[in-house]
Amino acid sequence: MDTSLYRAAMEGNTEILNQNKNLLENQLTPNNNTVLHVAAQFGHIQSVMEILNMCPSMYRKVNSQGDTSLHIAAREGHSTIVRALIEYANALDEELENGVGTAKDMMRMSNEVKDTALHEAVRNHHPIAVQLLTQEDPEFCHPANNAEETPLYVAAERGYVGLVFVILETCTVPAYGGPGGRTALHSAVIHNLEGCTRKLLQWKPALSKEADAYGWTPLHYAARFGYVLRARDLLNADKSVAYIADKDDKKTALHLAASQGHVRVIEELTSHCMDCWEIVDGRGQNMLHIAVKYGKKGAIKFILQNFPLSSLINQKDVDGNTPLHLLAASDCYEAGLVKHPKADMMAFNNDSLTPLDVVCSNKSVEPWGFTKRNFTNAGANLGRRDVFSRDKDEIVTKERHHVLENVLPIDIRRSADTHLIVAALITTATFAAGFTVPGGYDARQGLDHGTAILARKAAFKAFVITDFMAMIFSTTVMLIYFVVAGASDRDKFLRHYASAYYLIVIAVGAMVLAFITGMYAVLAHSLGLAIALCVIGCLSFPVNYFLLRKA
């Protein structure tokens, strides 16, 4: 394109455009943009009108991406130009005797990726342009582009709630689909948009039951992400959606909520559909099976407290496993399930194994997790069915398992090294603190020469005791690892590892207490500051306990 013409279109210089009106028709940029495209891009309404007067047919011309000048104006949000192009096309309609709907035809034109002008206006969040385009052609459904996106879906996905309202209130039959078979309601729920979700449900309640390519309804996504209010909106629209299962695993929203441990969603689902807890997935697993399989302790506790356990706790899946079997095979311990009086400890799965059999055969379970003791204390027994074949299998695989059982996981070795470093640091710090006591030593000549100045204070005595405890426990940890350094017995090492873990925790706690009491002893003259430091220090214990429980 001629530089002077491009600059004139870019800056809105209508005088230069008029001087070169014979050249306008054939002037193109490398992307095949006309001067009308350029004027629309930079928002010069007078240039646009002047160009249309000189070259009436230019409004339909497209660039190399298939964009018309309306696409460009809608993308940039130049609503005055969008309005001008629509009015110009309507004026052409009136001039034609039989009217061919020029304006609507222009607005329905799509580019190379099948985006209409409305796609562009919605994607770039230009509300006025969206309103102009939808009001001019309310009967058009605005179909999906090559990416399977409709304008309504794009608005919902990007959280443009106002644009969703405009489209729904203006268009009579707007398309609402998106990629992967999702609808605009799927997207609104996924992004937890309250107003958008409720507006879509008000517009078309049946959307709540439409599933995507995976068979997931919007309720599945609400359950997956734990959006209890969105789940409530969907259930209020149609509670039967709670019974819809997905395609592959036949899981309902309740199963997904259990797998993620979203207790409030489970409560919401079962309050609307009291019998939906009976549904099992494609593997015959109920919600308790699934909560156990994914180690969701909060969900397990809630289920144990609120549902008929005779139908859940002993129900078997396609492999014959009860929730207890799955619990025994995992590294998650929930005492309420193991010790529950309705739990059948002698239930056999399809491999003729009881939960205790599963525990004993699970070589990956660590000593502080599921041990034989956890189940035997709850009254569990070995099944002892199929003894002969098990003995034969044990003989065949004994040598291979012997090697595997004595190989320590790399993460355990690294953790043991960390224990040793921490123990050494605690020993060093507490040993030094024992001889550089708070308050110092009495330098005066006499019977008390060389003794601790604060020795008679209770806080100082507490400091000495806790400092000594921290040093003893940390040195014990160092001794434990020294003893088992060359051990070849995996189980023996793991037992000592568990002991060292708890001793390290105690040593750290004792060291913190030593610091608190030492500070209190030297700050006794400033009681307010001393108490404040004690309170802050003591707050570390519940925080550390919470972190250890989560670990």
From TrEMBL:
Superkingdom of source: Eukaryota
Transmembrane parts of this sequence: 420-441, 468-488, 500-523, 529-548
- List, for all copies, the residue spans of the domain called PGG: 413-522
List residue spans for each ANK repeat. Answer: 65-97
For this UniProt entry, what's an example GO CC term?
plasma membrane
Provide this UniProt record's keywords sorted from A to Z.
ANK repeat, Membrane, Repeat, Transmembrane, Transmembrane helix
Signal sequence bounds: none
Compartments annotated for it: namely:
Membrane
Task: Report how it sits in the membrane.
Answer: Multi-pass membrane protein
Matching InterPro entries? Ankyrin_rpt, Ankyrin_rpt-contain_sf, PGG_dom
Identify the main location. Answer: membrane
Matches recorded under Gene3D superfamilies:
Ankyrin repeat-containing domain (1.25.40.20)
- Family annotation (PROSITE patterns): ANK_REP_REGION (PS50297), ANK_REPEAT (PS50088)
Keyword set includes Transmembrane helix: yes
| PANTHER family cross-referenced by the UniProt entry | ANKYRIN REPEAT-CONTAINING PROTEIN ITN1-LIKE ISOFORM X1, PROTEIN PHOSPHATASE 1 REGULATORY SUBUNIT
Q: What is this protein called?
A: PGG domain-containing protein
